[in-house]
Amino acid sequence: MTRNACVLVTALGLLAAVDGQAADAQPKPKAPPRPPAVGTIVTGLEPKAVEILKAASSRLAAAQSMSFTAVISYENPSTLGPPLVYTTTNQVSLVRPNKLRVITPADGPASEFYYDGTNMVAYAPAQQLVAVAPAPPTIDATLQAAFDMAAIYFPFWDLIVADPYKDVEPVLKTAFYIGQSKVVGGVTTDMVAYVTDAVFVQIWIGNEDKLPRRVRAIYLDDPSRLRHDMELSNWQIDAAITDDTFKPSTANAKPVEFARPDPQPPKGAPVPGKEASKPTPPKSQ
């Protein structure tokens, strides 16, 4: 090998060594953070999650009137083991503080509920049966009265009370922010999970309009972990709703009494486990 060739090889070797040292000196990119392991327990109230829940609550509480569609799917056990899914559609209209209508076609008999500030009416159009009773002066109190008298419960109860966050705050144990979704409700939503004494909930809330678009719930005392899913759409906030909306057409219906379908204890006896402020939702609606 000639002298010049030896010099060239030596120079190339030194250059490679220098390049290697320079590469080693460059900061290496950090590995992305690892997600929590499956089964990791998240506890406490995350400020961002609470902020999103409060913003949705404020938007709903400020509405003097609203209407929306709630499509609810809920699981019931089958004789084979795996659950079956049933569905209801609820067309909801309300005017604060004392008017509510819920029209409910279902995988089963349809039902209608009316509250005009004076009376509440439950109507079964297929059977032509109607129950009428005096009602309290607010939507919140009427929801409670309907549950107490006839086990009438609406899965969107928490969304139509006067102050949704105030209603859930006393029993809120955990709340955390999950992230954003761009596939629910046709808008960008913020996903939040929260836990009370009774239920684990995941909710999708519009990032801009602060309206709920989907709610998914599992009751903690249910060993089967049956799932309840509610899609919310067709929101109309503060649109005009006439008083006629809350007047049913039941002229040919047979009057019946409001009554609960489940056996009741003797009059005056305490009801075990009953909460004073709010009903324990049934496992199927």
Please characterize this protein's 3D structure.
- With 285 residues, this protein is an alpha+beta fold.
- The relative contact order is 0.17.
- It has a 13-stranded mixed β-sheet, with helices on one face.
- The chain has one domain: Lipoprotein localisation LolA/LolB/LppX (outer membrane lipoprotein receptor (LolB), chain A, Clam), CATH 2.50.20.
- The chain contains five helices and 13 strands.
- It has helices spanning 3-25, 47-62, 139-150, 157-160, 164-168; strands at 44-45, 65-76, 84-95, 99-106, 108-115, 119-124, 129-134, 172-181, 189-196, 199-206, 212-219, 227-237, 254-256.
- The radius of gyration is 28 Å and the shape is globular.
- Helix content is 21%, strand content 36%.
Mean pLDDT: 84
CATH fold-type name: outer membrane lipoprotein receptor (LolB), chain A
Main sheet strand line-up = 1-8-9-10-11-12-2-3-4-5-6-7-13
Number of helices: 5
Could you tell me the number of beta strands?
A: 13
Strand content: 35-45%
Structural class: alpha+beta
Can you name the CATH architecture? Clam
Largest sheet: 13 strands, mixed
Low-confidence stretches at least 5 residues in length (pLDDT < 50)?
A: 1-25, 32-39, 270-285
Query: Outline, from the CA principal axes?
Result: globular
> What's the gyration radius in Å?
28 Å
Give the SSE string: HEHEEEEEEHHHEEEEEE
Class, according to the CATH hierarchy?
A: Mainly Beta
Query: What's the domain count?
Result: 1
At the fourth level of CATH, the homologous superfamily is: Lipoprotein localisation LolA/LolB/LppX
Span between N and C termini?
A: 91 Å
